[in-house]
Write a structure and sequence with these properties.
The chain has 257 residues and is an alpha/beta fold. It is built from ten helices and eight strands. Strand 2 (49-52), helix 3 (60-73) and strand 3 (78-80) form a beta-alpha-beta unit. Helix 2 crosses helix 3, helix 2 (32-45) runs parallel beside helix 10 (236-256) and helix 8 (210-219) packs parallel to helix 10 (236-256). It starts with a helix and ends with a helix.
């Protein structure tokens, strides 16, 4: 399967900039209008894409309304980041077609994917295969997904799962600390995982400062995802701007090394 338009865009942006920032918005946390305003502010501040989804199961009408509102106010890609089949709508540009690689429940490995696939094809969404790994405490995503979170102190185990995901055909790997995690994934873990991969590496969860984002990119993260910190920020545009600049600095430092 050849990369689609959104995936090709991501690779081009990574080639140009070295690392990217994505803004994650939860359709359950605000009205569609407020969610769209947040997406527009994130685009102005330099985010390269909007992710729409959450750890709990949003209703399909909420996702649909939020996606429509976001697309009306932004030009960067809108990528679905679904927690379940209710997170699908044809009003987005693409979907991260995820398998939770360290789930104990087959439903999150291949079951929900089989349920979702016909709908994704019918509505014409671009599916981007993604291996999803939950580390540390895991948060709501770990609880809902029946994950066995990989301890932060076991980077080689995280690397083994990530490499398995790549060998299974996943074209992106996502290391997740969980929404609102107290501690982000350590740079050393990111560095170890990055050392075995040939595909882009996404890191999210617990990233609250530009300093943290910069250190994770320097360690090997290609894409930084933030959500909770933006919900808490006085100025979403200002906070995204801080994280985008930090991501760029991290990419420059990594290139020098």
């Amino acid at each position: 399967m050849k990369p689609g338009r959104v995936e090709a865009y991501l690779h081009q942006r990574l080639e140009e900039e070295g690392a990217l920032h994505f803004t994650l918005l939860d359709p359950e946390k605000a009205s569609p209008e407020k969610t769209a305003e947040a997406a527009s502010a994130a685009e102005r501040a330099g985010s390269s894409a909007i992710l729409l989804g959450g750890s709990t199961i949003a209703s399909q009408p909420e996702v649909e309304a939020s996606a429509k509102a976001i697309k009306a106010k932004t030009s960067i890609p809108l990528i679905l980041f679904p927690g379940n089949v209710t997170g699908i709508t044809g009003h987005a540009d693409a979907i991260f077609f995820m398998s939770l690689l360290n789930s104990e429940n087959p439903y999150f490995l291949t079951g929900v994917q089989a349920l979702a696939a016909p709908t994704i094809k019918r509505v014409g969404l671009e599916a981007i295969p993604l291996g999803y790994l939950i580390l540390g405490g895991g948060g709501a995503a770990g609880y809902v997904g029946y994950a066995r979170p990989i301890p932060y102190g076991q980077p080689t185990l995280a690397a083994a799962y990530a490499l398995a995901g790549q060998y299974l055909g996943m074209r992106l790997i996502y290391l997740e600390a969980g929404s609102g995690a107290e501690q982000p994934i350590p740079p050393e873990t990111v560095k170890t995982v990055r050392s075995v991969l040939d595909v882009p590496l996404i890191v999210g969860g617990g990233i609250r400062t530009g300093k943290t984002a910069e250190s994770l990119v320097e360690a090997g993260a290609d894409i930084i995802v933030t959500g909770t910190v933006l919900e808490e920020a006085e100025s979403l545009e200002g906070k995204v701007g801080e994280l985008v600049e930090a991501t760029r600095r991290g990419a420059q430092r990594r290139r020098r090394h």
